[in-house]
Specification:
single chain, about 325 residues, alpha/beta, Glutaredoxin, 2 domains, two-stranded antiparallel sheet
Length: about 325
């Protein structure tokens, strides 16, 4: 059971651009709060989870309670925000508490906005990534209009996530490629120099993974596919970055054996729009018959549609 993943966001709180330097007592308080949180992370997030499901669930619930207590004890600190993000992640990913997790994410966003705080990007998290997470949850809940304000705020910024937010805004409300829909044959030229047809082949399915250099979950999906490749499936990573060099360097560092393409096809059409992008990562499985078999946001969500090498031995 893939629980208790290393969720170390390592947020470092800084004052707003015009805020006066914080006095020494405030700095000391911040440091004490971070030390307390690091102790919790060491106990719950950086140790192997119990093998038994019930024992693991008990650990998750206890971790959430202690994270909530720490967040309440150190309000306004980076440790408090970070603990609340851990709470929300536990709710959304492992405990099935979508409403509670989404409420925590929105409250954290609103407090950051109200305080005029800014967070440097560390270990794959920043306020823009938080905005995309909130938007993604609203889209998954079937309420894209609730996602628009967050996407618009992120799109207006200068972060790497801004381009993805703009693409999501463009594709909200458009028809999405759904199971049973035909998939068009596309000509593509990838940033890795490989090009060809983006279509399934005889007796071989096609798995498209929409990814971006800033998305740690997407990178983990690609790494998992490289470690455990599906049988009879050709994998292609669709890069959403406007300048895909960073994604190519990441793929080389991770030793990914499959090609990268995008963000447009050979005719200049936006691949995100053709996919009906509504999340990152997005996985779209096309069968040998040229029809979409499944779309999901994770390998787990694809379920039995994606056979894995070695399964059933």
């Amino acid at each position: 059971m893939g629980i208790l993943l290393p969720l170390v966001f390592a947020l470092l709180q800084e004052p707003g651009a015009e805020a006066p330097p914080r006095p020494a007592p405030a700095v000391a308080r911040e440091e004490r709060a971070l030390l307390a949180l690091q102790a919790l992370e060491e106990r719950y997030l950086r140790t192997p989870p119990p093998a038994e499901r019930e024992a693991a669930l008990a650990v998750l619930l206890r971790a959430r309670e202690e994270m909530a207590a720490l967040a309440a004890a150190w309000p306004g600190t980076a440790a408090s925000f970070r603990a609340r993000l851990h709470e929300a992640t536990l709710d959304l990913r492992f405990l099935g508490r979508r409403e509670e997790g989404l409420r925590l994410l929105e409250e954290t966003w609103q407090e950051i906005e109200a305080r005029g705080l800014r967070f440097p990007k560390v270990a794959g998290w920043n306020q823009a990534a938080l905005g995309l997470d909130i938007a993604r949850e609203w889209i998954r809940s079937g309420q894209p209009d609730r996602a628009r304000p967050y996407l618009a705020r992120v799109a207006a910024g200068g972060t790497p996530e801004a381009e993805t937010a703009r693409r999501l805004l463009q594709t909200l409300g458009r028809p999405r490629a759904r199971p049973g829909d035909p998939w068009p044959v596309l000509r593509v030229a990838g940033p890795d120099g490989r090009d060809g047809e983006l279509a399934p082949r005889e007796d071989e399915s096609l798995l498209l993974v929409a990814t971006a250099s800033w998305s740690r979950p997407a990178r983990e999906v690609l790494r998992e596919l490289a470690r455990h490749p599906p049988e009879g499936v050709r994998i292609v990573a669709v890069v959403l970055d406007r300048a895909p060099d960073r994604a190519r360097r990441q793929a080389e560092a991770d030793g990914l054996p499959f090609p990268l393409v995008g963000p447009r096809d050979a005719e200049g059409r936006d691949l995100a729009g053709l996919l009906g992008l509504d999340r990152v990562p997005l996985l779209l499985l096309v069968g040998p018959d040229g029809r979409v078999r499944a779309r999901a946001g994770s390998l787990k969500d694809l379920g039995e549609a994606l056979p894995r090498a070695g399964e059933g031995d």
